[in-house]
Amino acid sequence: MSLMTIGKLSGATGVKVTTIRYYESIDLLDEPERSASGQRLYGDAAVERLGFIRHARDLGFPVSAIRELISLQVDPGRDCDLVDQIARRQLGEVRRRLTQLEALEAELKRMITACEGGKIASCSVLAALGHHEQCLHEEHAGKEVLAALPSK
Amino acid sequence: MSLMTIGKLSGATGVKVTTIRYYESIDLLDEPERSASGQRLYGDAAVERLGFIRHARDLGFPVSAIRELISLQVDPGRDCDLVDQIARRQLGEVRRRLTQLEALEAELKRMITACEGGKIASCSVLAALGHHEQCLHEEHAGKEVLAALPSK
DNA sequence: CTACAGTCTACAGTAACTGTAGAGGCAAGA
DNA sequence: TCTTGCCTCTACAGTTACTGTAGACTGTAG
Fold first, then answer.
1. Share of chain B above pLDDT 90, in %
2. Please, what sign has the CA dihedral across residues A148, A150, B2, B8?
3. For testing the chain B interface, which of A48, A63, A67 should be mutated: the one with the most B CBs within 10 Å?
4. Residue B64 host element (H or E)
5. Which residue is nearest to nucleotide D7 (CA to C1')?
6. What is the ipTM of this complex?
7. For residue A42, what are the contacts with CB-CB under 8 A and spacing of at least 6?
8. Cα separation of B61 and B59, whole Å?
9. Residues of B whose CB is below 8 A from A74
């Protein structure tokens, strides 16, 4: 069970076949052995490596960062600072996105509860999108937006 | 102060000049008037419309949804259900992403606090990325990952 | 008049894949 | 052995939402 085709590797890691070939093309994965007929053959090391890449991607690390992390792994004697730095940078990114998404959630919730089956002319979702600085509960919100939009 | 060039519109809305031209090319924005020399000239309606688009994009709505919303606006007599539906769909998306990001944040935090200036050979960040099913606190985590990775 | 910033078109590039076409490969059943 | 049906191959185009570049023209302030 040592060598497997690209389909098995895909099944083992949850990474699509086309994506595996893509990773090879951008040098995230080494070129594998080939069978006599030219099919890619992977060993267990490829499962590990691809799992590493996949997990890092799931965590939101960009491919460039993953490339960095992999290049660090080949030199295990060095200090861990750079790895730490990359992870911290990523954590900052994640937190930034979290804050943003929380605001979005609040606003969308507000928009939806305000929109209770009226006509579009007074739909608060559209009003909210048009005038984000205005309060949703003002009665005549919406008409202005519609007036402002050329009816093509 | 009624007509403005693309640069002013950009300044007024915070949308980059190139992006405005892009929106025009994908028909999110109507083609504006032109000056004698061919420069785009926008009125206040464009500020409204572009603000609407920008805000919706900030909320994470894909361009396709925005196109839908705009097309709904031109027909204000209809029911608000579709608008509501688009917003709910978007809220679901946002919540999905939120949950995911929260998990990421937790994991990254765990990774970083575990990594305290050692050598790469034992770096827990790399270990965590390699073996996400394993506990970080097992002593020998990491070496296996490095062993598994071909040193190119 | 001369800078210099702004604008124009057209096209290429970005990230991180996904999808397609058309050809060839491999294992199992009739 | 043939056939069925899925797997794999390469090469390239398409996706989303922009961003950047080249090279030319325009508009304005000193």
1. 32
2. positive
3. A48
4. helix B63-73
5. A7
6. 0.65
7. A3, A4, A5, A6, A8, A9, A32, A33
8. 6
9. 149, 151-152
CATH code of B6-78, in short, is: 1.10.1660.10
Helices (H), ranges, chain A? 6-13, 17-25, 44-58, 63-73, 81-114, 124-130, 143-148
Residue for token pair 């805000």: B55
Q: How far does the CA of A63 sit from the C1' of C14, in Å?
A: 13
Q: How far apart are the first and last CA of chain A?
A: 63
Residue B133 CA to residue B107 CA, distance in Å, equals 12
Cα angle A125, B101, B148; round to 5: 150
Distance CA A55, CA B129 (A): 6
Domain boundaries, chain A: 6-78, 88-148
Q: Which nucleotide is nearest to A22 (CA to C1')?
A: C17
Residue A59: which residues within 8 A CB-CB, separation 6 or more?
Answer: A90, B104, B107, B108, B129
pLDDT tens track for A11-51: 999 999 999 999 999 999 999 999 999 999 999 999 989 99
